[in-house]
Design goal:
D-Maltodextrin-Binding Protein, domain 2; single chain; five-stranded mixed beta sheet; three-stranded antiparallel beta sheet
Amino acid sequence: MRYRTLGAVAATVAAGLVLAGCSTTASGGGDTGERTITVAYQKTSAFHQLDDLLQKVKPEFEAANPGVTVDLQPIESEDEYFTKLALMNGSADTAPDVIYEDTFQLRSDAAAGYLLPIDDYLGKWKDWDQFYDAAKEAGLGDDGKTYGVSMGTDTRAIYYNKDIFAAAGLPTDWQPESWDDIMSAAEAIKAYDPSLIPLNIYGSKSAGEQTSMQGLEMLVYGTDSTLYNTDDQKWITKSSGLTDSLGFYEDLYAKGLATPLDLALDNTIGSRVSTELLPEGKAAMAIDGSWLPGGWIEGENAWAGWENTIGLAKMPTQNGGGDGFTSMSGGWTLAVGAQTTSPKTSFDFIAMALNQENSLKYDTENSQIAVRADVATSDDYLSYNPTFAFFSDLVQYTHFRPATPDYSQISSALQQATESVITGDATAKEATAAYDAELTKIVGAGNTEAGD
């Protein structure tokens, strides 16, 4: 079933997008002869929408390009995707022609020589003007060249079970105004039913970027601190905001209000939140991304009546200061591998995968905030998902990960710090100090500055 959302979503998207990617063009140059292009991408039980899209595009592209075979190579792992992709890129024999690339990884992969700049193709593609100007920045490398084509962007908030809230004596139109309000709601849920998980917030190394971005950074960017001073281009050490954020985890686990460790440390935690913990009513709250409803509307994990059970709340800042709310945004791109022997064919495949028709399919089914104007303003997009208006409105509060080549290493250090707190191996202060030491090793003391 499809739903109509507020028409204001299109205006919000057009005005507010800051990070979401680029699209590719189909023109210029030409590869010749029979050839095969390989497409490497992620597929999990909870994330099948990209596979659905590519399975649709493959026969269409092959029919339009006689002599071309598209070899789809899904990597069916959530926690090992980047590792396996790096191994594939390590040899010309296995390097993909088209790569599903996270925006946070794009600059480092471009700098490492894994990706091909595509500006010449983009300049000739008639669809390029449909992409919002701000959205095009996501595919840029440090050299100013474009390496990726965005499939959409996203925001993050708090999902909560209205039935559990009502039973626990909490309002079903809940909107916390501080971290204390979240903690109080979690305590009320535990008092109502100790068998429930009051709040899932990612905190393990096995959860990877979910811990960095959907967990820790959702907290950090709601404080008076930041991870990276963009004006000075220096990373922050001795951050009280980071310590407070890790302290939130510390308190949550000390009070037994978080996901049990055996589950939190499981490398399938990300998919289990959307396919099990929320649909089966095992978790009362979860801080997660805007794409979750895409798997509930249709597909093997469809959840009848989810829109009546799930409520959405904006993530508050620490004490309600600043804008009052916060979010994080990112997104994924399709990129051309630097070792391809068929660059134009690879680019043309991306152009077809991200044309208006296919972008609409992907953005609706995967609950993406659309980055093409002809998608974001279309009735088919606006009427598909009742959460599009809510999540698109969060763009005004959102933040983006530092777009530096060393971010992926720093993200791993953030994950280590967070896991050390939830396992009880370190206090919030100790974990902050350990992170500072690792950060300094990664970027050098000259690229850091003390925070507040």
